[in-house]
Amino acid sequence: MAVSPTEITRSQADHLALQLVSARIGAAFYVVWGVLHLIAARGICELASSIPDGPAHARLEQGGLNLGLFAVQTMAVAVLLNWRNNRIGFWLNIIVIGAVDIGYVMLLIVPGYFPASFFALAGPIVYVIGAMFSTAGLLRRDLAVSSNCGNLQFARGRELVASLNKGQLSGKDRTSLS
């Protein structure tokens, strides 16, 4: 049964929409992660103001600033790159957020400074959900590209076979068949 060009286009449009929806859900979760960490950064800075000036005060302020910058970077990448299902944006947020959350879990949750509760693990949970959706969007995009390349190669192969049957192959086409 032959498929009309309209059906192929509709199918490709549906596939594109699905990959963008997945990527955009992932981007939304990254923005939520950023907001959660801006709130946490503010809390760290407030904690710093509760202790006397000195190296510990400065280090807490620096930690709050660093966390806030990671949050802003994550949200910027999510809005500017992940929203468009961009490969560079995918890797930036996977690596940066992963490193921040691994450090948080290993340095604060595992030693028991924070109890392992839903509230304490909200950031890593939001990260994992965002990573799953953005990964699904990127994989769907890559499958669409490889599928389209296969369709183009199949169409070119059919053209070569038709030319061969008619005896109309050029020298270049003969070498591509060998």
Explained architecture:
The longest helix has 45 residues, at 5-49. The protein has one domain (8-140). α1 runs antiparallel to α2, α2 packs antiparallel against α3 (87-109) and α3 (87-109) runs antiparallel to α4. The relative contact order is 0.13. It is an all-alpha fold and 178 residues long. The protein starts with a helix and ends with a helix. The chain has five helices and no strands. Helix content is 82%, strand content 0%.
Can you give me a brief rundown of this structure?
The protein is mostly helical and 178 residues long.
Q: Which radius of gyration do the C-alpha atoms yield?
A: 25 Å
| Sequence of secondary-structure elements | HHHHH
Low-confidence stretches: 150-155
Would you count the extended β strands for me?
Answer: 0
Largest sheet: none
What's the rounded overall pLDDT mean? 83
- What is the domain tally? 1
Number of helices: 5
Percent of sequence in beta strands = under 5%
The percentage helix is over 70%
Alpha-carbon distance between the termini?
A: 31 Å
General form: elongated
The computed structural class is: mainly alpha
Keywords:
mainly alpha; 5 helices
Please give the structural blueprint:
Layout: H1 5-49, H2 55-80, H3 87-109, H4 122-166, H5 171-177
Helix pairs in contact: 1-2, 1-4, 2-3, 3-4
